[in-house]
Design goal:
This protein has a six-stranded mixed β-sheet with strand order 2-1-10-11-7-6, with no helix packed on it. Strands 5-8-9-12 form a four-stranded mixed β-sheet. The chain has 492 residues and is an alpha+beta fold. It has 18 helices and 14 strands. The chain folds into two domains: 272 residues, Butyryl-CoA Dehydrogenase, subunit A, domain 2, CATH 2.40.110.10; 184 residues, Butyryl-CoA Dehydrogenase, subunit A, domain 3 (Up-down Bundle).
Length: 492
């Protein structure tokens, strides 16, 4: 197979996975009212790669068949720039609202395969070989992949990771003739209803965990014993006029239960090997994956700025000093995101094994800022929108022969008619005020770690050599020495 179409993607969702939304055990994902909008949106993403083949597709390095550019293992800065254009096109489709479009995991596994040498240490050569083979299959079959890498929260006083053996957390039970059996739970499988396969890999080192928790593998979503319990849907309607965003961009999130699931041996990348588990994510994963995540964030911020500006123009608020400041704050967020992505790509380098990735420094700083920026974005949109966000006639009201003349007269904007005004402010409310807006704000706060963790990581990992040099000039100088000694010596 090569790059799939939307129709092929939807056909692939017709399996026997055990997935629950509310009290419903879902039969047909593409037909379920809570899921059909996003299923269709993801199908459009698969079709998009064909409509924009010059940007989104590339030849497979071995077969020459077209695959998505997000499967590329970058070997140069030019490769990263090429991948940027494809990632940007996908991000623009959902204006950055879908954080787990398939390109996210495509980039992740391309990075894993590109640094397979990191996975082959400590006696894990077989696991590394399996990983490389899987990444090729992922690209050539154009699978939609989700992941579950966070340990279930039971008692945080014990820490985020297992200490010793914890039966609640995902763990190996036994070896079988064909692989291993695993049991336990993980969170949070975003995109679960719309994925073909599920990935498990390290979310961070587990320094005190038993070896049986150190696992990495990929399996089909309908593997026996695998169960997905989704949160409440925020897709309230398929009506794109009333709900232009939530009708199609609820990518869902699921709690995952492994009820004695057998993992085939050729799908195992780490098999109870704690030494490998605790090291493989330290070097290249962040510089690689943050290109995708930050292009998406930049796109979302630019959309938010444009949306807020259009709202202000619609009711002639744009000239007010307070509104100018609010819009300027949004523009600042968008420009800092753009600049960080640009700096990361321009500073790209080879990270080992011939694989290139971005300079992690500007992207780490942006990562630390986003959990506070995105809630602020929603707040600014709601302030600029004010009561106008709640005066948005439905399409049925606009179609009523008696109501329409009155709506046209009393609910028009300064520069747009009543129908365009209603569509604009509904779009803003769906972005910042509905259940979708609330879910996405929560996602942005935590999907790359909390504010505190990001600040801590930035402080711990940032090179401070220049800062120390600037400081030491004053702290290490001999205060009683002659001033401008270098000038005196030069004169002599």
């Amino acid at each position: 197979m090569t790059a799939r179409t939307g129709e092929q993607f939807l056909k692939g969702l017709r399996d026997n996975r055990e997935l629950w939304v509310g009290g419903d055990k879902v039969g047909s994902i593409a037909d379920h009212p809570a899921l059909m909008g996003a299923a269709q949106a993801l199908a459009e993403v698969f079709d998009l790669q064909h409509r924009s083949a010059d940007v989104c597709l590339m030849p497979d390095p071995e077969t020459g068949e077209p695959i998505n550019v997000s499967h590329m293992i970058p070997r140069s800065r030019a490769d990263l720039e090429r991948r940027h254009r494809g990632l940007e096109r996908v991000a623009e489709y959902s204006v950055g609202l879908m954080g787990r479009t398939p390109d996210y995991m495509n980039v992740t596994f391309a990075g894993f395969a590109g640094r397979a040498d990191e996975w082959a240490t400590n006696g894990n050569a077989r696991g590394a070989e399996n990983l490389v083979s899987y990444q090729k299959m992922l690209a050539r079959e154009d699978l939609s992949l989700t992941h579950t890498i966070v340990h279930s929260t039971v008692d945080l006083a014990k820490g985020k990771y297992p200490v010793g053996f914890d039966p609640v957390q995902l763990h190996k039970v036994e070896d079988t003739a064909h692989g291993i059996v695993v049991r336990g739970s993980r969170v949070l499988a975003t995109l679960a209803p719309f994925a073909d396969e599920l990935a498990v890999y390290p979310g961070g080192p587990m320094l005190q965990a038993a070896d049986v928790h150190a696992l990495s593998f990929c399996i089909p979503m309908d593997t026996p014993g695998l169960k997905f319990i989704c949160r409440d849907s925020v897709s309230t309607s398929t009506n794109r006029f009333e709900h232009p965003l939530s009708s199609r961009f609820d990518e869902q999130d699921a709690f995952v239960i492994f009820d004695d699931v057998e993992v085939p041996r050729d799908r195992l990348f780490i098999d109870a090997n704690l030494a490998v588990y605790n090291t493989v994510m330290k070097t290249t994963w962040w510089p690689n994956i943050m290109q995708q995540t930050m292009i998406r964030a930049q796109t979302k911020l630019e959309f938010a700025w444009g949306l807020a500006t259009r709202m202000a123009e619609a009711v002639n608020l744009v000239g007010q000093p307070q509104t100018q400041q609010q819009l300027g704050e949004l523009a600042m967020f968008a420009e800092f995101a753009r600049s960080s992505v640009f700096a990361g790509e321009q500073g790209a380098r080879e990270y080992g094994n011939g694989m290139w990735a971005c300079d992690v420094r500007p992207l780490s700083a942006l990562r630390a800022a986003l959990p506070t920026w995105f809630p602020r974005v929603n707040d600014l949109i709601r302030q600029i929108g004010s009561h106008n966000l709640l005066t948005t006639p439905a399409r049925a009201a606009l179609a009523d022969e008696k109501l329409r003349p009155l709506i046209d007269k009393y609910l028009r904007g300064a520069s747009i008619d009543a129908e365009k005004r209603s569509r604009l402010f509904r779009l803003a409310w769906d972005f910042a005020g509905t259940a979708l807006g609330s879910r996405n704000e929560q996602y942005e706060r935590f999907y790359l770690g909390s504010v505190g963790r990001n600040y801590t990581a930035l402080q711990a990992n940032t090179d401070r050599a220049r800062a120390d040099r600037l400081l030491d000039r004053f702290l290490l100088e001999e205060l009683d020495a002659p001033q401008h000694l270098d000038l005196v010596e030069a004169a002599q």
